[in-house]
Amino acid sequence: MRIPAGRTSSIRALNKVFILQTEFLVKPRPRIVTAVALEGQIIHKVERTYDNALETEEDLKVAEAAVIAQHQNLAKKMQTNGADFIKQTRSIKISTVDRLALIPGISVVSDIQEKLAAPNPHGVYVQAKYVSEIADAITNSTKMGPIKLGAILSEQGKFIISRSDGKDFLLSLKPEADIAEVLSEAMKA
Questions:
Q1: What is the pLDDT of residues 5-54, one digit of tens each?
Q2: Structural domain of residue 181, as residue ranges?
């Protein structure tokens, strides 16, 4: 199956240069995603599901037209209403949990400390705490720098520990997820 081509462009509005990138993603479900970056930070994201089939060349052309339309519509909005666009996007702060939950292959994101504070926490959270403590010991006794990610493979499943904003999060992976791919994406998040 061929995937529709994405688009990238720079938009000048209010003496700022925004980078606009639109792509067609197929996993975990088909969707068109447009991200807007300013000064290296993603400040806005538009995600729309795509329910049409992608079986023929005609289907591919229709999907590519949808990618182009979403890209152009957001670009026009930014150029005509730049001030309003910046006001809206500056007030949006994507939480760490939401950002991690967007990674393909992740089923649940949990704050480890919150889960450990509950009565009778599940064993995987206790394991995650021990892995975090080992990471702290390695960080404190070497010059490697802080460890930001760790993986747990256990009878309960596949998990990744992600350290962000001074907190440890446990990312539960879907059974079919490739842990190497998810780790790679988690490093970018």
A1: 999 999 887 677 889 999 999 887 889 999 988 877 888 888 888 888 88
A2: 98-188
**Pair of tokens at residue 152:** 């747990």
- pTM, two decimals, is 0.51
Last residue in a domain, options 92, 127, 149: 92
Task: Choose one of 42, 62, 92: the last residue of a domain.
Answer: 92
Closest CA to 98 of 142, 141, 162, 53: 162
pLDDT value for 52: 84
Count of the separate structural domains present in the chain: 2
Contact assessment for residue 100 and residue 106, using Cβ atoms and an 8 Å cutoff: yes
Measured between alpha carbons, how far is 89 from 84 in angstroms, rounded to an integer?
9
Output the pLDDT for position 115.
92
Residue 103: which residues within 8 A CB-CB, separation 6 or more? 171, 182, 185, 186, 189
22: CB partners within 8 A, 6+ apart: 6, 7, 8, 32, 33, 34, 35, 67, 70, 71, 74
Rounded Cα distance between 97 and 182, Å, is 15
Of 44, 32, 186, the closest CA to residue 109 belongs to: 186
Which of the 8 DSSP states describes residue 84?
H
